[in-house]
Amino acid sequence: MHTIILAFVASLQNFIFRLPEKGRRNILITSALPYVNNVPHLGTIVGCVLSADVYARYCRQRDYNTLYICGTDEYGTATETKALQEGLTPREVCDKYYKIHKETYDWFNISFDHFGRTTTDWQTKIAQDIFLKLVNNGYTFEEAVDQLFCHSCDKFLADRFVEGACPFCAYDDARGDQCDKCGKLLNPTDLLKPRCKICNSTPQLRSSNHIFLDLKKLEDKLQVHLHEQWSEEVNNRWSANAISISKSWLKDLKPRCLTRDLKWGTPVPLEKFRDKVFYVWFDAPIGYASITATYTDQWENWWKNPENVELVHFLGKDNVVFHAVIFPCSLIGTKDSYTLVNHISSTEFLNYEDTKFSKSRGIGIFGTDTVSTGIPCDIWRFYLCYIRPETSDAAFSWSDFVLRVNSELVNNLGNFILRGLSFTKKFFNGRVPKLLISEEDANVLAQVNYQLKEYIDSLEHSRLRDALKCVLFITKIGNLYIQSNEPWALLKGSDEQKRRAGSVIALAANVSALVSLLLRPYLPVTSDEIINQLKLYQLKDCRLPDYMVKLLPDNHEIGNLVCWIKNVFLEMVLQITPLFQSLDPETCEKFKEKFGGVRSDLNNEEKPLEKLATKTATKALSKDAGAEKKNVKKSKDLAKLTDNIEKNDKILCECVDELGNKLEELLIKFSQEQEGQLMKEKFELEKRIVSLKKELLNAEAKRGTKQYYDFTSADKLVETASAAVASAESKPSKNIATNNGVAVHNGVVEAKSAVLSKSEKPAKVSKTPAVPKETEVVDVSRLDIRVGLIIRAEKHPDADSLYVETIDVGEEKPRTVISGLVNHVPLVEFIFPIFQMQNRPVLLLCNLKPQKMRGIESQGMVLCASTPQKVEILNPPPGAVPGDRVFVTGFEVLFSEFGLAHLTRSKRAAGLWNFCSTIKCTTKNPCWKYLNYGCYCGWGGRHSPVDDIDQCCFAHDACYKRTKRLGCIIKWIGYDWLCHNHTIYCGSDNTICGDLRCECDKAAALCLSKHFLPPVKPVCTDPPPPAGVII
């Protein structure tokens, strides 16, 4: 009986307080604890709490056992400083700002499981326990430290009480623990020209004993743990910048001080150090555990359960080192079985317009400001996630805010939902019509499923911005689907057309239901509104499916019932309402002006430096005022004192202006004296540069490299690539649309063998270019160039100038490619997205030997055009899709372009790529399965066939050659055909050449169907043939 009662109590507690469950995915999510010393700004919100909230909501939708913990970081110098500024006690400051933080996050709909604070008994108990175990296990040591001591304040100054110039970037207002400008971690003694933040006096060095954590002793265990998490075998989901920052710290781990000379903090539990407290960045991360303990006394089930719990941190990049190095080392050093970090999702910095957010200086939009604008919280959540700085710094821009909301939310997403549901109400009395899936509908569903898969993958890897764009892409697909089918027109036609119209509207309504699920992590209020209008309330607790399913039953009623007064009677009508309202640019421009200055709504008190300045001015005036100082409290004397301050201020301004004018005159005089000498040196340097470029041109020409050079001097030198190319350019092919030196026809892309930048043209072209010798002939057809799409791009974790791109080239899996384009092409471009790396079509050289670059294997090369001035990525022309093969005019070959020899996967199954479809029809295998097969297929028809499948490739190539001899230009021929019972039937209306090509493809597909495709493709071991030889 006792056992039954205990089991019942345990299950009841698990129901009330969420605890880990065996056999289920348990995820413990934390958001970096915001400082309690100010109102959170948008950078804090998106970088930590909002990002973690989106991920937590997604995890709950996937039915993961999820606990989301956060709270205010209340100990440390930041709180003491704020208390001094506001004339409050530290406890009063914590209480005041905890309430502001809580109200702000509630307004933003942040779904914490528990939002606590660090000033609790649990915090003291757990932090002291971890510290004592570190001491007893020999991971700490004592050492005297030179600290800054302020004689005016009679106290040691902790890092946040000191400001000065940064030794790395010379920023004047760097803090004693970190520079806001360059992000470097500092000690107060590192600062140049340090000053006390309380009284503005210059502090002096004085020695004080402190306790250090010996990170070197814990390095090996930390390295093992982190490399396990970064391994692809455990599905690494760390942000690239988190890995990069962690690795840089692991290269040179140094002891870290754990104690501070402060009053406000967790006390050190050693008698010798009873007047000291813990350093906030040792103490603060322990707050995650103590806040969990205030949520449930069974907190150890989450924090001492590494086998069953995944720990995920969301934070800004400036906090990575504390969560990836210091906090894990502190837990490892206890020798207890603590849950260590599994994943870190860190963001870059979010700026405000052209400046930086700063909690201490009050620059930018703060949480309380968003409420006063009257703009709904879902709009803020949308835009912050849309610009989330995942791979590079981003900026909140009012103009972009208006643009994105009005175009993406109102005109795209909101418009799709409104059309789908309002058509149902208008044409079918609010009842969802019967859904009949056509071939076109199946294609639309395939696109939606692809985006759904990308959405899930992006959120699993904490790429919140990419996942949101998948949702927007689905609604774009939906809008195009409705527009292309025009159900309003079909409803005026035959019964069959009316059924088709109903099916279109039913599919749009079902996609709307799916969108409501996908929006729940991002826009919870909007999601609820869609669900309410659909009258499908069970979706609020529905598990997110892996693929598109029918969510709305046939004849399901939608719409909100609204009471209207009509002819004195109450009438119930169905109503579909718009989800969003457009933002007014003029109103937002006023907001931009309003929030562009320094905040003063919460703190009208003078800052310490301002107080000191006022105090100094008063003393100076008192010398002149004489006896007036004794009666300063009288209103008459105060008025005189104010007048004197204004007069002195005016005199001071005049002196500053005069000094500035004199300085400007001196600078002008100095510049005039130097200008002649500088111009002379510039002229000599330009001459030298031109000379060196000519030498470089000659050296490259001797090595066989032919490129265009556009010299800035009058003597411009340009050399052509070859006589054949010059001839081809002078007589362009007919019916070929060109774009930046690249041409496409019927899905096949052509690239000219010499490419100039878009804005650069050769000044001179030799009329009689030298023809290369026979031994120098280059077989350009050996280059396997394909159209690709950059799915994802991010900075290399170990190289500042390299990008790591994931590129879809129509193969079974995308390729990883490294490109040195960081200094030439932006990762994300908000104004002109076509010039960014993300989601960009490119030309990729695919048959290069894979090469490791800084530890990551590169499987190709992105092709660019360059001049000495700039580098630009080559753009495929409109209509080209990933997998389309690129060839060079004048170097065409037959089978290596269009047959199995260089067959690539294509998203189209018509026109030039009918051959792929014939293979699928006859063999049931997709054509890409024969890619790189054997010697003949795998080498583009350059070797002898190794087996029967290779013989099929050989026979197909021979068939094409025979067709060409009859006068047919194979690459431009399309034909009609039919697949029935895995048999190909060529159309009766084909041209003679179309019939011939159909028969070639049919014979090759039939040949392949007779032979078993082995799971492991035979690898060609023959050496490559001499250049220019085609078998």
From TrEMBL:
Q: Which UniProt keywords apply?
A: Aminoacyl-tRNA synthetase, ATP-binding, Cytoplasm, Ligase, Nucleotide-binding, Protein biosynthesis, RNA-binding, Secreted, tRNA-binding
Q: Which Pfam families match?
A: Anticodon_3 (PF19303), Phospholip_A2_1 (PF00068), tRNA-synt_1g (PF09334), tRNA_bind (PF01588)
Q: Name one GO cellular component term.
A: extracellular region
Query: Known EC number(s)?
Result: 6.1.1.10
User: What are the recorded Gene Ontology BP terms?
Assistant: arachidonate secretion; methionyl-tRNA aminoacylation; phospholipid metabolic process
Quote the catalytic activity from the record. tRNA(Met) + L-methionine + ATP = L-methionyl-tRNA(Met) + AMP + diphosphate
PANTHER family linked: METHIONINE--TRNA LIGASE, METHIONINE--TRNA LIGASE, CYTOPLASMIC
Q: Does the keyword Ligase apply?
A: yes
Check the record and name the SUPFAM superfamilies matching this protein: Anticodon-binding domain of a subclass of class I aminoacyl-tRNA synthetases (SSF47323), Methionyl-tRNA synthetase (MetRS), Zn-domain (SSF57770), Nucleic acid-binding proteins (SSF50249), Nucleotidylyl transferase (SSF52374), Phospholipase A2, PLA2 (SSF48619)
Domain called TRNA-binding: residue spans:
779-887
What family does the Swiss-Prot or TrEMBL record give for this protein? Belongs to the phospholipase A2 family. Belongs to the class-I aminoacyl-tRNA synthetase family.
Where does the record place it?
Answer: Cytoplasm; Secreted
Against NCBIfam families, the record matches this protein to:
metG, PRK00133.1
Q: Mind listing the GO molecular function terms for this protein? A: ATP binding; methionine-tRNA ligase activity; phospholipase A2 activity; tRNA binding
Name of the protein in its database record: Methionine--tRNA ligase, cytoplasmic
Q: Which PROSITE patterns match?
A: AA_TRNA_LIGASE_I, PA2_HIS, TRBD
